[in-house]
Amino acid sequence: MLVLRSGLTRALAARTLAPQVCSSFATGPRQYDGTFYEFRTYCLKPSKMNEFLENFKKNVHLRTAHSELVGYWSVEFGGRMNKVFHIWKYDNFAHRTEVRKALAKDKEWQEQFLIPNLAFIDKQESEITYLVPWCKLEKPPKEGVYELSTFQMKPGGPALWGDPFKRAVHTHVNRGYSKLVGVFHTEYGALNRVHVLWWHESADSRAAGRHQSHEDPRVVAAVRESVNFLESQQNMLLIPASFSPLK
Question: CB of 56 within 8 A of CB of 229?
């Protein structure tokens, strides 16, 4: 009995000391899954945009052999032109480290795509994000366009603004004005930042839904509550690449 009790004590102690990955977006059950999403943005030379995308299309299989591509888009409206945005999924930080090491040793990837195309890139940006605990990554029913809405919230974290933000998102979804793909909060990058990825059948259907939502008292009330914690926001209309898993 003493041996069993000692073993149990050691097991409980080890479990207590084991590191756990937690999402800071604690508006519901905390996220203990280490899965995260890297947001990458490349600003390309204007004369090389089409060539870059065509070259990536030819070699995308070399890159996705190492980790999962969630989506790949070109930016149509909202911000700098000749820009591509892509999302990559990783199991945890150790997984990403392994992938980056493998890519550095992958001669086919290096020689066929990376080295010849690096000169086409003017600027690169990276953010590490988690899906919020109350949201799952959803696949749209058919091809369309995407909108990435980015909200810079006030310092204080989700304990301050998480619930009002969640209600504002759910009100739009429940009223059917937009199709939600995913809600992400930034772990590395600007803190207190939340990205909401929406799907629309077209840019015109997005405009029509937005006009209708502005006249919906339930949406207006939810947004007014959330905006009290908002510092700034911006959005981009995204066109999926032909090789993007999210179309």
Answer: no
For residue 143, give the amino acid letter: E
Task: Give residue 222's identity as a one-letter amino acid code.
Answer: A
Cα(205)–Cα(35) distance, integer angstroms: 33
Q: Which residues contact 119 (CB under 8 A, 6 or more apart)?
A: none
Q: How far apart are CA 63 and CA 39, in angstroms?
A: 15
How high is the pLDDT of residue 223?
A: 82
pTM of this structure:
0.83
Give the integer Cα–Cα distance in Å for 49 and 74.
Answer: 9
Cβ atoms of 99 and 90 within 8 Å: the answer is: yes
Q: Are 182 and 131 in contact (CB under 8 A)?
A: yes
- Per residue in 35-67, pLDDT (tens digit) is 999 999 999 999 999 999 999 999 999 999 999
Enumerate residues 6+ apart whose C-beta is below 8 A from 9: none
> By percentage, how much of the chain surpasses pLDDT 90?
62
Kind plus residue range of the DSSP H or E element containing 154: none
